[in-house]
């Protein structure tokens, strides 16, 4: 990445500003502004997230906000109420209080003497979510948003549930927030009241996993902050950004199709990161695109945005399977609108062990009723090499060679492709199925099989069959009854070479990516009534006729000193003496010092997902976090969390612990707070 030190405007950084809210509370903000902004007011750009501006996101903020500010904006990085150095307690994500506070922040910014009254909002993940949500609230000063790695539907495409199945990321993300919410504000900003504020958070934030597990269907808990409930509420331009290795990309297609405002979509090969920091690469000059976007919508400068295609997507080339990639080869393609006029549905019919293009010969012996049926009950081991629901670039977290999984799945495969096939969009599989149990699930993987047999997962989808007609009112299956179902696979752009094969693999389990069904269920598929539908895009002569992206640029990196190296690993083990298999994930970010504040940070997260043979009630997820913050002898704190999620056939069981310490060599690191939780939550057809 190229470091830019000479920018059009000289920038002044302001370490902390408190912004007043309507109820008398205050949120803390860090600001970057052109030095002459008071004399020559400029638009403001706000990023509004709970991840601690003073320490946790300081490095990323240093790349992004001074760069944008240097192009003539006041950039404001705000800690949500109850996070970082802000007042209050954060008790859940995307609740009405968060959006009301955002309205207050935007109104305050628009009224400042250095702001010309125009405000933009941007963010990735949480900040991408609430940028869309605030756009739907439509505060008058908000003129445009950039939403990266986010979704318009908190239930359908979020890290809690997928296809009505419980994601292990529900536990993982709850762990992230458990750790963040338990940290104190910085005394250098809030003064002596930091202990009282810390105590208030420790006592009041709660166990979010408990909340999320009590809403296993798409009920009224998920709807208020889901933009898809009424797209017409969004009345400002939207740039939607994501990556094929992320978990949130499907929403981009819906936003492009459903919004009725100026909008652009950008999808690269990346995981859960901004595109100028994107992994797998290639990273792009995303901040240049951000400045063009703000110049157009906040300053009224004609940057040519309106003449450019609605969607730019990275068409990935075929690659061997790997749990991590430095780069994904491919090329940029564009579409003028979405749905794209040149993308056509191509059907492949199912037959025993075969996928045949529609109209081709379907092999196999029918039963007495003239149907072709095949039954499946997968081992729980299918999914141990699936990777993360969303790649967070804490590699190796991508899916491995799918031959490791296919032994426990039904496999349907084409003949070698006679010519290359390129897909862009959301594949789907239509099936006729029956089950011998009232709750069952399917995981479907689409793979690119090379001539040497290596199988690279292209995309996948999962469906809790009780959610076959939607997730608001799931219904149990009637054992033995046949149902038509559609399994939506995640959106993708992928080129498949001639000589390769397409493979569809179907399993009844995909642990630990999704939690197992409450009891083993055998699913029977009527193959003669089932098909794969691919969104096929023909290469066009004008594919190369688009404005190229610049090289990645950013402002200067903050100076840090590494005091202890970290470690990232994924390890799958099987103990043959106990029949227990475990996926262990280590995300130890080591210990480092932020030189401009003197703060020493240590972050370590461990996750374990295990099961015993084919006992679905043995599924177990455990997470442990350690967070330590130090600044000289005046402020030395550590927070340790542990969460264990298990189940019976009827309930989910949570056991969680939180311990907070003030580190003091003379007093022996006294524990200042401790709380335990035990929860039993009924399974709701999950």
UniProtKB/TrEMBL annotation:
Residues 291-555 form the Xaa-Pro dipeptidyl-peptidase C-terminal domain. Gene3D superfamilies: alpha-amino acid ester hydrolase ( Helical cap domain) (1.10.3020.10), alpha/beta hydrolase (3.40.50.1820), Galactose-binding domain-like (2.60.120.260). One of its GO terms (molecular function) is hydrolase activity. Keywords: Hydrolase. Pfam families: Peptidase_S15, PepX_C. InterPro entries: AB_hydrolase_fold (IPR029058), CocE/Ser_esterase (IPR005674), Galactose-bd-like_sf (IPR008979), Xaa-Pro-like_dom (IPR000383), Xaa-Pro_dipept_C (IPR013736), Xaa-Pro_dipeptidyl-ppase/CocE (IPR050585). SMART domains: PepX_C. The keyword Cell membrane does not apply. PANTHER family: COCE_NOND FAMILY, PUTATIVE (AFU_ORTHOLOGUE AFUA_7G00600)-RELATED, PEPTIDASE S9 PROLYL OLIGOPEPTIDASE. This is CocE/NonD family hydrolase.
């Amino acid at each position: 990445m190229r470091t830019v030190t000479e920018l059009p405007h000289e920038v002044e950084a302001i370490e902390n500003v408190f912004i007043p809210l309507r109820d008398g509370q205050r949120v803390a903000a860090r600001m970057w502004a052109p030095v002459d902004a008071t004399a020559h007011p400029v638009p403001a750009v706000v990023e509004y997230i709970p991840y601690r501006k003073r320490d946790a996101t300081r490095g990323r903020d240093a790349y992004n906000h001074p760069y944008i500010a240097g192009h003539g904006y006041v950039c404001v990085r705000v800690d949500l109420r109850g996070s970082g150095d802000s007042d209050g307690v954060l008790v859940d994500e995307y609740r009405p209080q968060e959006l009301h506070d955002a309205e207050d922040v935007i109104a305050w910014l628009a009224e400042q003497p250095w702001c010309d009254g125009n405000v933009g909002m941007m963010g990735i993940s949480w900040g991408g979510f609430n940028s869309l949500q605030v756009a739907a609230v439509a505060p008058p000063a908000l003129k445009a948003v950039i939403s990266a790695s986010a979704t318009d539907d908190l239930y359908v495409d979020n890290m809690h549930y997928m296809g009505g199945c419980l994601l292990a990321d529900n536990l993982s993300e709850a762990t992230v927030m458990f750790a963040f919410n338990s940290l104190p504000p910085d005394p250098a900003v809030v003064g002596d009241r930091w202990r009282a504020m810390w105590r208030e958070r420790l006592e009041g934030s709660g166990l979010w996993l408990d909340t999320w597990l009590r809403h296993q269907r798409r009920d009224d808990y998920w709807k208020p902050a889901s933009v898809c409930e009424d797209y017409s509420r969004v009345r400002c331009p939207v740039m939607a950004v994501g990556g094929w290795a992320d978990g949130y990309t499907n929403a981009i297609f819906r936003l492009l199709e459903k919004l009725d405002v100026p909008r652009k979509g950008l999808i690269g090969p990346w995981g859960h990161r901004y595109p100028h920091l994107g992994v797998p690469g290639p990273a792009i000059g995303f901040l240049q695109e951000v400045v063009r976007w703000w110049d157009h919508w906040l300053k009224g400068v004609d940057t040519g945005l309106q003449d450019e295609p609605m969607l730019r997507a990275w068409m990935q080339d075929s690659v061997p399977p790997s749990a991590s990639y430095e780069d994904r080869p491919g090329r940029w393609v564009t579409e003028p609108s979405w749905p794209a006029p040149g993308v056509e549905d191509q059907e492949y019919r199912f037959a025993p062990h075969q996928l045949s293009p529609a109209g081709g010969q379907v092999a196999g012996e029918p039963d007495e009723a003239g149907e072709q049926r095949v039954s499946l009950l997968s081992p729980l081991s299918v999914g141990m090499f699936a990777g993360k629901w969303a790649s967070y670039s804490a590699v190796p977290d991508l899916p491995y060679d799918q031959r490791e999984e296919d032994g426990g799945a039904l496999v349907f495969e084409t003949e070698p492709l006679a010519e290359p096939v390129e897909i862009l969009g959301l594949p789907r599989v239509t099936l006729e199925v029956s089950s011998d149990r009232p709750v069952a699930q399917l995981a479907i993987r689409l793979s690119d099989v090379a001539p040497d047999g290596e199988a690279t997962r292209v995309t996948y989808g999962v469906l809790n069959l009780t959610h076959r007609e939607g997730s608001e009112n799931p219904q149990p299956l009637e054992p033995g009854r046949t149902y038509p179902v559609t399994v939506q696979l995640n959106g993708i752009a992928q080129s498949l070479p001639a000589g390769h094969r397409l493979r569809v693999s179907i399993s009844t389990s995909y642990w630990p990516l999704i939690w197992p069904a409450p009891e083993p269920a055998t699913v029977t598929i009527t193959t003669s009534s089932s098909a794969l539908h691919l969104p096929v895009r023909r290469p066009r002569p004008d594919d190369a006729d688009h404005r190229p992206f610049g090289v990645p640029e950013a402002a200067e990196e903050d100076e840090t000193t590494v005091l202890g190296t970290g470690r990232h690993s994924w390890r799958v083990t099987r103990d043959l003496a106990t029949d227990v298999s475990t996926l262990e994930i280590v995300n130890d970010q080591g210990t480092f010092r932020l030189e401009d504040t003197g703060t020493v940070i240590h972050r370590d997260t461990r996750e374990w997902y295990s099961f015993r043979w084919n006992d679905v009630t043995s599924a177990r997820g455990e997470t442990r976090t350690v967070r330590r913050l130090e600044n000289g002898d005046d402020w030395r704190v550590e927070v340790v969390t542990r969460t264990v999620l298990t189940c019976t056939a009827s309930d989910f069981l949570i056991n969680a612990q939180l311990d907070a310490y003030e580190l003091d060599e003379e007093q022996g690191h006294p524990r200042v707070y401790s709380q335990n939780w035990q929860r039993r939550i009924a399974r709701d057809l999950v």
